[in-house]
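[job 0412] stage=complex_fold ligand=adenosine monophosphate status=START
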Amino acid sequence: MRKLAEACEAITATTKKLQKTVIVADYLKSRTVDEAALSAVFLSGRAFPAWEETTLQVGSSLLWRVVAELSGNDEAALRAAYRKHGDLGAVAGEVLEARSGQGSSILEVGAAFRQIAAARGPAAKTMLVRDLLARATPIEAKYIVKIATGDLRIGLKESLVEEAIAKAYGSALVEVQRANMLLGDIGETLRLAVEGRLLEAKVRIFHPLGFMLASPIESAEEGLSYFAEAAVEDKYDGIRAQAHVADGEVKLFSRTRDEITESFPELPHALAGLLQDAILDGEIVAWESPGRARPFSVLQQRLGRKKVSERMLQEIPVAYLAFDVLYARGELLIDRPLRARARVLDELLAAERKVVHHGGTETQRKTKSLQTTLGFEAEEGSTGVNIIRAPVFRAKSPEELEELFTVAQARGNEGLMIKDLDSTYTPGKRGKSWLKMKRELATLDAVVTAVEYGHGKRVGVLSDYTFAVWDTDGGTNKDRLVNIGKAFSGLTDAEIAEMTHWFLEHTIEDQGFRRTVEPKIVLEVAFNNIMQSDRHDSGYALRFPRIVRLRSDKSAGDVDTIDRVREIYHRQTL
Ligand code: AMP
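[job 0412] stage=complex_fold status=DONE, emitting structure tokens
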């Protein structure tokens, strides 16, 4: 472990990527294969390979207590060290300076991590962590703690470890990257590189692959500027999930490759009916009959639960909208173009009778969906089982794309995903083959409740507006307005003059510098995000609010509710 810690110190000392790779490659070559394989995992900032579900389940406070105890220092000294370094590993390295264990080998550290992960309860874990750190030298303790907290912070990304493996064992970088992507295990990848067997790496079912990611676009024109033929899907507001299905067994993995099967017990049941083993990519959404996704805040109530009550299952049913297939019929499909994968997915889901899918040709589907703002229709006679092939549309012009965007939003979805029909599936990569066209920054409609005189050139005019939304108490009752923000007017001088006149005439109470006014003037307000705050009586405050425009077409009854504010707040806190 000392050698690894020293290599880490050397890696930290240089900012040059090439230099870092050389240090890692030299270090790996100097170790046995077992040591190098484990080191590769540690150097990627992990205690266990990426695909594994195993975690240490050791929090920073437990580590903190053990470090404090071993150092014999009081809390104040530890806190001072923490303020200096801002990193618990570095603190351990410093405060354990005076007492040094005899040192541990990297394989011993690996074995200790496995024991800690397997131990149940904080007492058992604390004992094992204490043993491990007591044996370590200070510099080893520093890196053991860093790896245990999952935060190595030596400026080394997993991609650099891949480069180092290629360099150390004379392998082609693309082969290393591909093997690591398929296996989700950089240590195993290293072993294959050593043996010259990288090409033998195969996808393993129930080992999650990385997710392909999308780049944002600014306009419909941009959406069609990167490739010739675009498949367009709604962008659903749920959580991304990779579904692995084999022999009737099903596991769902989140974007962070954590298993989330337990939270959605209705999905494995439905997916188990697939006629072939497969790995699907899709989005889990809260689902509303007859066929539309509910807002993310609704789905959120289902997240992170180990046990899902019958009532939850009834009240917030979920659906899996499958939009890609990575593996089927015993074949890895990621190198095939999207147009071919889409066909496989269509067949796969169509073949399963229990699965709800959308019949009709693409054109029929498009016309149908453009006609309705209500959402997708489940096939007649369907059993209501919730695996759905995400409908695919085509757009050949920016106008068509805009039209699809509008209907997607009318269905309550976030916007569109625009995908290159000729593109392969690139796990873990964000490129220009998948584009996302999202709802513009959310705006709120709010009503002005109070006004203040401005400053500078706005002295003498009422140009600071406090605005409010309805607190409907979860219902529809609109008799209580709650303030959510205050902004300088973004209106023109003429509009402000006109408004000043109106506010003076409709003042409820003149408080000197401030006037409460009749809640009649509706504004559309943009903002960067929403904070919880006791500054206003709503309990929320808009951050950087800007008045976009007067909504003279709207009356106070039309303004947003506190529920929508909460929903935006929850969405952004993901
Ligand atoms: P963002 O989270 O804004 O970066 O957007 C990308 C995310 O949109 C993906 O990770 C998915 O979770 C989600 N998404 C929703 N609908 C789709 C779709 N049809 N295709 C791909 N991703 C989608």
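Residues 214, 233, 235-236, 240, 283, 323, 390, 417, 436 surround adenosine monophosphate (CB under 6 Å).
[job 0412] exit 0
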